[in-house]
Amino acid sequence: MSAVAPAAAMPAPLPAAERSSGLPLVVLLLLPIALVNAFGFLAPVFNLLRMSFYESQATGAMVEVYTFATWASVLRDSFYAELILNSILVSLGITLMTLVCSYPIALYLHRSSGTWRTILLVLVISPLLTSAVVRTYGWVAILSENGLVNNALGAIGIAPLKLMFNKTGVVIGLTEILMPYMILALLAGFGRLDPRVEEAASTLGAPPWKVFRHIVVPLTMPGIALGSLLCFVLAVSSFITPKLLGGGRVFLLATEIYDQAIVTLNWPLAATLSILVLVIFGGALVLYTRALRAIM
Amino acid sequence: MTSRTDAPEGFLSIRSLTKRYGDFVAVDNLDLEVPKGELVAFLGPSGCGKTTSLRMIAGLVPATSGRIVVGGGDLTEVATHRRDMGLVFQSYALFPHMSVARNVAFGLEMRKVDKGEIAKRVKEAIALVHLTGKEEHRPAQLSGGQQQRVALARALVIRPSILLLDEPLSNLDAKLRDEMRNEIRDIQKRLGITAIFVTHDQVEALTMCDKVVVMNQGRLEQLGTPVELYETPKTAFVASFVGRSNRLTAVARNGAAEFAGQRIAAPAGLEGPVQVMIRPHRLGLSPASPAAADPARQQVTGTVARAIFAGDILQYDVDVGGQIVSVELATRGGESVIEPGRPVTLSWRPQDIFIYGAAA
Ligand SMILES: Nc1ncnc2c1ncn2[C@@H]1O[C@H](COP(=O)(O)OP(=O)(O)OP(=O)(O)O)[C@@H](O)[C@H]1O
Ligand SMILES: [Mg+2]
User: Fold this and answer.
1) Which residues contact A78 (CB under 8 A, 6 or more apart)?
2) End-to-end distance of chain A based on CA atoms, in angstroms?
3) B58 in Cβ contact with B7 (< 8 Å)
4) What's the CA-to-centroid distance between A202 and ligand 1, angstroms?
5) What is the spatial distance between Cα B312 and Cα A33, in angstroms, rounded to a whole number?
6) pTM for the complete prediction?
7) Is the ipTM of this complex over 0.85?
8) CB nearest to B81's CB, from A205, A215, A295
9) Partner B contacted by A213 (CB < 8 A)
10) Chain A residues inside the 8 Å CB shell of B86
11) Which terminus has fewer CB within 10 Å in chain B: N or C?
12) pLDDT in tens, B142-180
């Protein structure tokens, strides 16, 4: 992304003494974030990796003896393969829904200006000021068996729909919760969109939908890629909403990790699944960078 | 402004076209008839409404009022993509994510021209603007002038019924600009395209266009052939904008304009302050000797304030009653430069002087 300029590109007027200290400026500037990452990210991940090789006993106790048992059972058991696949598919579905719902809003926001734009932007961001728990309970009130939707349907004589304690509920809830992130990411990636270029396409004979398809979509690809990556990662790792709206009937990696760590107290298994989540994120990141290179 | 409604109907007919932004009038009641196959220049200073007019013709901004008619069909409410007009944007507006070849092919693809034909025409168009070899470059990899030529090729390749060019040559060097002018003129004539060419550059407007529209502050000041505009400018603005002119102020009374006690004939009906325009090279200059005056020429006397020998021309600034008049004489060899401070007589043919009411 062109928005992220490397720190080294900034000419920093340093006093002569510091410049001659031998350490290149890049290293100095990157040092703080490197330290934070080392202690706040790499160390815990390493810990997690180590823990995944510990032995767990049926009592829930963890013994510091190295074994491949947990990994072997996870990799062999089709339940976990299904869990991973399910998590990825549900998250992809959520990402797609979020993208479809957010794109028109982001496009409209991008094109509006002045006070109106500010008001809209505040409206878009304001859900982030409320916790996901509260917003999820909001969805419970709407989707549950005698919630808003089913009451309304009942009033006009339609049988109630099962909107909760299944994938539908999880997808609806997470889509709404992730929309602000998607909209902000899309807006950040809309820089290449230029109304003159769209006009040029229409003077060349492109009807509006072709302008959208051949000009708007390709030019907003950086935003689409960024927003999708962000939402996919957030969807895979979210567990409160799937827990409340899935009601224990939707099995996802994040909820399973929570159960193993807090309920079953099988920490090595929780650690193993967590590492798998990281692997999925790594895959998503690789796809993202590939996509970006193809777009640019 | 209603005087033009009886003009012969053109292929492109613009009727009382107006664009308002709030209280600001960007284009004010523009009337224009362009016959098929003609190249018309829009000439005017920055901000006079040239781009806005083109954008209304192309359907990119809705007109506040007025109509746009092409070949008898009213296009005022027709969407841009159905107007079959090629527009070269002042800012190029190339598709940044497409190669040069795909930029040029875009309009043909939208028209569902078959693949072989597209390839052939794209190749021709790119060769025409001297960009062969750059087909696979992205716009960001091209210089400003090269981008401008891609924009030109992209609009020409679709052979539109009307071609709108918004300063399409502004970023080219003198040689390339000359070449592109000829190319545009050639193609436009060969294909019989009706075209509007927006420019700041009066030389461009005068040399390559059939007619020139001079615009000022959203209004059409004058429409005419290059010769008409140059020889019979209708307003002081046109006289000063097309070619160069001395601009003097005088007071008109009883059919004569008077400055510094000297009188020259003025059109009847003018009273009070007037503007007098005369081109520097249409003035004659001789050492003060009124006796030798040519009765066919009008004259005033003044004193030389400055004399500059510039090789091809001899340039004088002459003080006439406190106003400076510049005079340019072609050198023929052997003339002596008249020293500053000497009295001289300025003379001109009556048809070379233009007198306008001060309001014009
Ligand atoms: N969207 C707009 N809102 C308000 N005013 C506008 C808008 N577009 C153009 N104008 C005004 O209309 C006037 C004419 O603009 P236009 O772009 O047509 O000028 P132009 O003749 O093409 O000038 P240039 O030679 O500098 O390109 C300008 O004064 C401009 O400020
Ligand atoms: Mg302009």
Assistant:
1) none
2) 9
3) no
4) 21
5) 70
6) 0.81
7) no
8) A205
9) no
10) 203-204
11) N
12) 998 899 999 999 999 999 999 999 998 888 888 888 888
